[in-house]
Amino acid sequence: MANEAVTFHWHGMLQTGTPWMDGASMVSQCPIEPGQMFTYRFVASPQGTHWYHSHHGAMRRSGLAGAFIVLPKEGTQRDDIPQVEQDVVFLAQDWQAAVSDIQLVTEMEWFIVGFSAKDGSTGTMSRTYDGSMSTLEPPNNKALVNGKFKSFSKSDNVNEEAVPLETFNVTNNTYIRFRMIQSGITGEYKISIDQHKLLLVGTDGEDLVAVWVDYLIINPGETYDVIVFANSTAGNYWIRLETTEVLDFFYNPIKPKVSFAQLHYKEAEVALPDSEARKCTQSEPCVMANCHWSQEAISRWMPYTLCQPINEFKSTQQSISDLPVPVPRDLEEFQEVFLNFHLAGITPMTSRPSVNTIHYKSPPVPLQVNPDIANDESVVCNNKNLEQCGEYCQCTHVVKLANQKVTQLVLTAEDGLNMGTAHPIHIHGNRLYVVKYGLGVVNESSGLLQGPNQDIEYSPDYRFANWRNASWSNGNVPDVNLIDPPLKDTIVIPYKGYVVLRVKTENPGFWFMHCHLDTHMSVGMALVLQIGETDDMPHPPSNFPRCLNYPANLEPDSHSKSGSNEQNIEGKSRKDVDAFMQLLEENVTSSYYQDDHSPYDMKINFTWIILMIVIMVFFMFGIILLALMLLSRYCTGAFRSRKGYQEIGRDEQVEFAN
């Protein structure tokens, strides 16, 4: 990178023994600065379909991502699924025409004040099947497949004729594995192939008992392995990527956006397909995999379609044998944590993405490289040490989990505002079993959400949650699947619902956990899981890059104190001064990457918005008045130049605060 820092996260890799190679900026490592070289070295595990992407700034929005496939060892291939003749990567992402940094700031302005100060544009939100807000962030242009697309949606700023159509060439009567990766920064897609079913065989690198489905919902951060049997009439068929928005903000029906790729049989001529989407009937119903809405909601919009959530899929017996579902022998081996991923605020206009009402802020130095900072309560916080701090709490949110314990994470998405979305949550360095899935309360006739799931009760500010039925505590939740649940590293929390996850904490380190919707993560919907004590964690190599703070109270050594400065600088102590100046330069450079300098550090509430508008009005009047005064002075010849700098005496100590 010529002028931007970067890190790379190896999405899905456990990084056992090498947590500093995880690539989470300011959690596992310092950003790699322009012109520097950094080598990632780790054991590629587990096998399966994974991916890599930038984890610093907004570069993933510009496409800085790719597939990372870990092949199985010889002789360990599955024998319960068809033998595939072709293996292809299907990298799906949304495409925003604007530059990534500009687009991110624009979306944040929409998120905060409802309009962009740059161009005056506004973001129009839409809703999904159950009335929850769509995860699409306007303006959503197109879905790309391996960097290409075709769409028949109207667009004023895209020359579609210049963009090629992604085509997958297949041979008749063969099986093709599609390694589907959702690398987008906003929005889920419903993927289907005209006149072809999808055999779902794996997710997030883990094997599933094979199931034939018609539609696959895939969210940012997720991967799925599907096998397609090319047994239709030789020809050309649309591969559809459809958004899940079916209502506008005011609940009026709208048409989803659809982008396309192409399945081409080599036995036929290449041409744009004229195929039609699958028709679901009572005699031949469809199946929608990874569905996080109610059956009532789906039936309203897609009659004769079965909504199958992720918890209904099953891990293979081989997967369970390799990694059994953890069950505690006693309460000493068990811990349970509730995490609410929600919009924290009093009103929809003042709500911000958070976890347990806390907005994540990166630490000044990486936790994995400087673990002592995890004990600094002026930087790190959580619900145990954070006093009531009003509408917005911001800090480096760290939740500590004991090592070698059966851990149950209960993830919720409730804010009381009826303005939230489902959230795709990615947990670094861990794989977790999805043992239970709870949806919000819906109207049986309309399928629209009416309220939160009643299994869980919340504090008035939604910072704390617990089981409504106290008998469910200590791991006694009914109807959990502890036999063969699916194993995931990225899981979608349904809006006003919950997900119960099980894992044995046996990978000590600091692991980032966040919403994979880019704007949500950037504004603060994230936290760090600290697994184990710092003494339990492996230590990074002695030559591993470190970035430090340069606090204002850092004093030069005695050689550079006043009274002998000139002698020391020009005399025999010059080496000491050079060493100090080098340290100063390194620390000032590295401190640039703290979140204190980030455009994401926002604490604006409704009162401040009004105050800002008033200030802007007075500011404009002031500018006009100043212009008139300057014009008057210029016309009378009284305009005089002024110095644009501050004089500093020699040997005077200075301090620059940025």
Automatic annotation (TrEMBL):
CDD domains: CuRO_2_tcLCC_insect_like (cd13884), CuRO_3_tcLLC2_insect_like (cd13905)
GO MF annotations, alphabetized: copper ion binding; oxidoreductase activity
PROSITE patterns according to UniProt: MULTICOPPER_OXIDASE1, MULTICOPPER_OXIDASE2
Keyword Transmembrane recorded: yes
Keywords: Copper, Membrane, Metal-binding, Oxidoreductase, Transmembrane, Transmembrane helix
Pfam families: Cu-oxidase, Cu-oxidase_2, Cu-oxidase_3
Transmembrane annotation, as ranges: 606-631
Domain Plastocyanin-like: start-end pairs: 3-74, 134-246, 382-532
GO CC terms, sorted: plasma membrane
Family: Belongs to the multicopper oxidase family.
Protein name according to UniProt: Laccase-6-like isoform X3
Organism: Crassostrea virginica (Eastern oyster)
Gene that encodes it: LOC111114613
